[in-house]
């Protein structure tokens, strides 16, 4: 496979002297098959169409695909000119941005999904969904040549910001980098979406070097979640929205309305229960749109610590969710017992964003250990059509039953079969404990998976690297 890199500045009116785009021009890449009657793939649309056409003619190649790493304008702004010059080229973008790209009047647009393989001659690219910078961030991995086209997920010497307006999330970004470092060989060559101001040389950049010199990657590999979060927040501060706030007793009517809209009937907390939680010092964080709560996270502080026996952990949900919250001075952990998102705003990154803000509040209180009880609706299945529709997953049910019959804790792969647990795992939690008869919840057979995260230091990460 031949790779031609294109280094291009976006239009001058988009940036100021010394801005990020000025210091780090966009990169796009033309990948050409070495086979007879070769075909090519263009990754991102910031290269000059006339120069690309000239290179294609010189290599006697035709452009078959234009693939996007994400839907930021500096990566897509030349797509109208490219589509006009190469009308037969198929245009791929992550499924979450498919409608946005199609609405620009483009034809031949198709969805990129995690695990998809794009084949063209001797080119074989694995699509890797890599959210964090944006919700739709995708990378392309040429495993045979060990080339990784990372978009704005990994730069030479850094990573992209967390753009919350496009579904970005600092905590999910940490998990993405963590996952990539576990699967990419150190010899991988990185082709990012921007030229590196740190190295002042064209890509590729060596992943082995990034593991030493890239502060974000070294923080992840050393498990320094808190340092990663602090640095990325500073880099991303201009993109952070201010639509979240803490709730108090004056919001009780809105809280009750949201409770009814969010949960199946047997899980809805009564007005009395919510008032008890507020009176007991519990914290409630909400995202609000047009005076309506769209999501709420609730938690209390506890003296319980991960170092204690699991037998000391609350046996019942009521102990977990209505106990008196201790002061943050005496607390060792936080118990998150409510992460609710109204159905109309689900699958838009709202839940992950809510958790990110909750983590920030908890961390600011000086608390690093966080526990959360996760439902497992795919155990029995849940068919409340207006609120949720989850099919029973026999493989997942078998794994949970095996735990109770043979004390064999399910693997992460088995836990991830359930959509709710999978969501929490994507946000950094690890399943830690399974409690039976924890709460009345028929879809979950009254079972809860207790998950855990340390917001400051993942001590279990990469100890041998």
Written overview of the protein:
Helix 6 links the parallel strand 10 (147-151) and strand 11. This protein folds into 2 domains: 2-239, Ribonuclease Z/Hydroxyacylglutathione hydrolase-like (Metallo-beta-lactamase, Chain A); 244-454, Aminopeptidase, CATH 3.40.630.30. Helix content is 29%, strand content 25%. Strands 13-14-15-16-17-21-20 form a 7-stranded mixed beta sheet. The mean pLDDT is 93. It has 465 residues and is of the alpha+beta class. It has helices spanning 20-23, 49-58, 73-76, 79-85, 98-102, 170-183, 207-213, 215-221, 225-236, 252-262, 271-279, 317-321, 350-364, 394-406, 412-415, 419-426; strands spanning 2-8, 26-32, 39-43, 62-67, 90-94, 109-112, 117-120, 123-129, 138-142, 147-151, 189-192, 205-206, 244-246, 283-289, 292-302, 333-341, 369-374, 382-384, 388-390, 430-435, 448-454.
């Amino acid at each position: 496979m031949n790779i031609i890199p294109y280094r291009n500045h976006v239009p001058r009116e988009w940036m100021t002297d010394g801005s990020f785009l000025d210091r780090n021009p966009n990169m796009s890449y033309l990948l050409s098959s070495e086979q007879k009657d070769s075909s090519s793939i263009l990754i991102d649309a910031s290269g000059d169409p006339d120069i690309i056409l000239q290179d294609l003619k010189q290599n006697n190649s035709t452009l078959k695909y234009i693939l996007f790493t994400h839907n930021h304008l500096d990566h897509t702004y030349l797509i109208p000119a490219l589509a006009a010059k190469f009308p037969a080229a198929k245009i791929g973008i992550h499924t979450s941005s498919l409608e946005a790209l199609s609405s620009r009047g483009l034809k031949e647009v198709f969805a990129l999904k995690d695990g998809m393989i794009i084949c063209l001659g001797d080119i074989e690219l694995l699509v890797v969904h890599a959210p964090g910078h944006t919700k739709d961030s995708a990378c392309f991995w040429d495993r045979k040549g060990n080339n990784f086209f990372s978009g704005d997920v990994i730069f030479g010497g850094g990573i992209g910001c967390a753009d919350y307006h496009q579904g970005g999330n600092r905590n999910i970004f940490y998990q993405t980098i963590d996952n990539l470092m576990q699967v990419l060989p150190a010899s991988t060559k990185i082709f990012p979406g921007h030229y590196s101001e740190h190295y002042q040389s064209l890509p590729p950049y060596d992943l082995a070097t990034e593991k030493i010199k890239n502060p974000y990657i070294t923080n992840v590999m050393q498990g320094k979640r808190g340092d990663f979060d602090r640095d990325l927040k500073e880099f991303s501060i201009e993109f952070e929205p201010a639509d979240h706030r803490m709730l108090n007793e004056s919001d009780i009517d809105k809280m009750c309305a949201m409770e009814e809209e969010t949960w199946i009937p047997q899980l809805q907390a009564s007005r009395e229960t919510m008032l008890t939680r507020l009176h007991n010092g519990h914290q409630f964080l909400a995202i609000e749109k047009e005076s309506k709560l769209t999501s709420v996270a609730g938690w209390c502080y506890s003296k319980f610590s991960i170092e204690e026996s699991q037998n000391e952990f609350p046996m019942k949900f009521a102990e977990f969710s209505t106990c008196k919250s201790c002061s943050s001075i005496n607390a060792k952990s936080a118990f998150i017992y409510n992460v609710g998102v109204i159905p109309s705003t689900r699958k838009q990154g709202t839940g992950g964003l809510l958790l990110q803000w909750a983590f920030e509040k908890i961390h600011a209180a000086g608390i690093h250990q966080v526990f959360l009880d996760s439902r497992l609706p795919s155990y029995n299945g849940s068919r409340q059509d207006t609120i949720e529709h989850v099919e029973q997953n026999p493989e997942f049910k078998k794994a949970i039953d095996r735990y109770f019959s043979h004390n064999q804790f399910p693997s992460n792969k088995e836990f991830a079969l359930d959509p709710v647990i999978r969501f929490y795992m994507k946000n950094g939690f690890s399943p830690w404990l399974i409690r039976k008869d924890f709460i009345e919840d028929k879809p979950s057979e009254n079972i809860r998976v207790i998950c855990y995260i340390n917001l400051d230091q993942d001590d279990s990460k990469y100890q041998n690297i």
